[in-house]
Amino acid sequence: MINFETLKRTHKPNNYLVADRENCPNARADREPPVLAHPPATVHAAWEAVTARQARTIRTDGDSDTMTYEYVQRSALFRFPDTITIRFLDAGQGRTKLLIYSASKVGYSDMGVNRRRVSDWLSALEAELLA
């Protein structure tokens, strides 16, 4: 499982990072982390519901102390594994900040798959929290 505090991205364009310098100082992020108006436990439960609906996706690791979890989603055609790591940070006042790193384990380019996955999953998470 990756550690956001020490993460260093590769030169390959087959990954996508949602983070800030405070929590991920050694890597350039593609997007600032969202801050959701729900406590970490609520956001985590909603995230689990979202990932349970994703095709070819399993949770492979987790650390409840740091609220960091890892998932693997395999591509439909060739079954290539992509790893998705998320950390739920207490942002105070009942809010949660999310750090997410999605990376392909095979190949050089991902044709935007990791960016789309993170965007789609975050949209699904927001919808799940509103339900």
Rg is 14 Å
Report the order of strands and helices: EEHEEEEH
Give the helix tally.
Answer: 2
- Secondary structure class reads alpha+beta
What do these coordinates show?
The chain is built from two helices and six strands, in the order ββαββββα. With 131 residues, the protein is α+β, with helices and mostly antiparallel strands. Strands 1, 2, 3, 4, 5 and 6 form a six-stranded antiparallel beta sheet that branches.
Short summary:
24% of the residues lie in helices and 32% in strands.
Strand and helix map with partners:
Layout lengths: L14 E4 L16 E2 L3 H13 L4 E7 L4 E7 L6 E12 L2 E10 L8 H18 L1
Antiparallel strand pairs: 1-6, 2-6, 3-4, 4-5, 5-6
